[in-house]
Design a protein that fits this description.
Blueprint lengths: L2 E6 L10 E4 L5 E3 L4 E6 L9 E3 L6 E3 L12 E3 L50 E3 L4 E3 L5 E3 L9 E10 L5 E7 H7 L9 E2 L2 E2 L9 E5 L2 E4 L20 E7 L4 E6 L2 E3 L5 E2 L18 E7 L3 E5 L4 E2 L2 E2 L25 H7 L1
Antiparallel strand pairs: 1-4, 2-3, 4-7, 5-6, 8-9, 9-22, 10-21, 11-17, 11-22, 12-15, 12-21, 13-14, 15-16, 17-18, 18-19, 19-20, 23-24
Length: 342
């Protein structure tokens, strides 16, 4: 018997949530498969299952036709989130799902951002797990920017606080040039957060963050406002950011409620009252989180905080999945959206 195994649109990297195994240190190795096809007793040409896209030049899946699958053959499309092992070949050779497999929105032609394990600060680093979508902070404040940075467009991002205390979490954005300057330049015992730092480096004028319930903005070492009247960051809070790089404005929300820029909160999106305008045009910015002895899980649009699915998708996701409604005209950080809107 000859068995032909065809894995279509397979790309093992760090930018997805379809987990396929774990390493010896407990971190996930991750990758994604859009289709898996096994033909029992035949060796078929790759062109039976795939073709080159005429526009992008990317090798993509093609629905096989006229295939005799054989007794043990199967075709897994990974389209049914409730049954990833469903066989679509007609043989009913459905598999039982085990481990930490999750249905992801990512494909080889559209990849959502994750936290970037290649960005390092000093000698002590945050631990990134669950496909680099969960951050566990060390004993010193360290940021974890995403794999994708942007210099124009309008972007939306969510993060969920999992453990820690109010003064140990933060969420914000930073000019990548300054961020890169600090890679390896922060001592092992120094605290470096976006918005300000207490290292020997000059305070950054192009970064900001929500820290506890304060906005650290524009290089000030003093919290300039206490913008969330509902209180500081707490376990299970979901924070979101709407970043307008075209008009240099930033808004923050907490558990679906947007701050209105005047010390209170508003239940509706108010584009007239940004929480900050202190960012520069045409600079590349990273949008992410950081912490000290604390834990975040991020959702850049794939629909999971780490390995926990969002409760229910909000509106205006434009194909991406977020917990709360996305302001109209704002998009998830993924390669397709950056190509179109960034």
């Amino acid at each position: 018997m000859r068995i032909y195994l065809c894995l279509l649109e397979c790309n093992f990297n760090v930018n997805n949530i379809f987990y396929v195994g774990s390493t010896s240190n407990g971190n996930y190795t991750d990758g994604y498969l859009s289709h898996a096809a096994l033909v029992d007793g035949q060796a078929l040409a790759p062109t039976v299952f795939g073709e080159t896209d005429s526009t992008s030049g990317i090798w993509k899946f093609k629905q096989p036709s006229g295939v005799t699958w054989g007794t043990n053959g199967f075709h897994l499309k990974f389209e049914n989130s409730g049954n990833l092992g469903l066989d679509s070949s007609g043989n009913s050779n459905t598999y039982t799902v085990n481990g930490n497999g999750r249905q992801a929105l990512d494909t080889p032609s559209n990849v959502h951002a994750t936290l970037n394990p290649l960005v390092t600060y000093g000698t002590n680093q945050n631990a990134l797990t669950e496909g680099n979508n969960t951050l566990t902070g060390i004993a010193y404040h360290r940021p974890s920017p995403p794999t994708l940075a942007v210099n124009k467009g309008k972007w939306y991002f969510e993060a969920k606080a999992l453990s820690g205390t109010a003064s140990k979490w933060w969420i914000g954005l930073c000019d990548t040039e300054y961020d890169t300057f600090n890679q390896g330049g922060v001592s092992s015992s120094a605290n470096y957060i976006w918005g300000y730092d207490n290292t020997t480096n000059a305070v950054n004028q192009r970064s900001q963050c929500i820290y506890s319930n304060n906005l650290r903005d524009g290089g000030s070492n003093i919290a300039i406002s206490s913008i969330f009247s509902a209180g500081a960051i707490a376990v299970n809070d979901i924070y979101a950011m709407a970043v307008d790089l075209d008009n240099q404005k930033v808004w923050y929300s907490k558990n679906g409620v947007w701050n209105n820029g005047s010390g209170g909160e508003s239940t509706t999106w108010n584009s007239s009252y940004p929480d900050s305008t202190n960012i520069d045009a045409n600079r590349f910015y990273s949008i992410g989180v950081g912490g000290e002895n604390s834990k975040w899980s991020v959702n850049y649009g794939n629909g999971y905080f780490g390995t926990t699915a969002i409760t229910s998708a909000g509106s205006n996701g434009n194909g991406s999945l977020f917990e709360y409604d996305v302001p109209s005209g704002y998009y998830a950080l993924n390669t397709k959206n950056i190509n179109t809107y960034g």
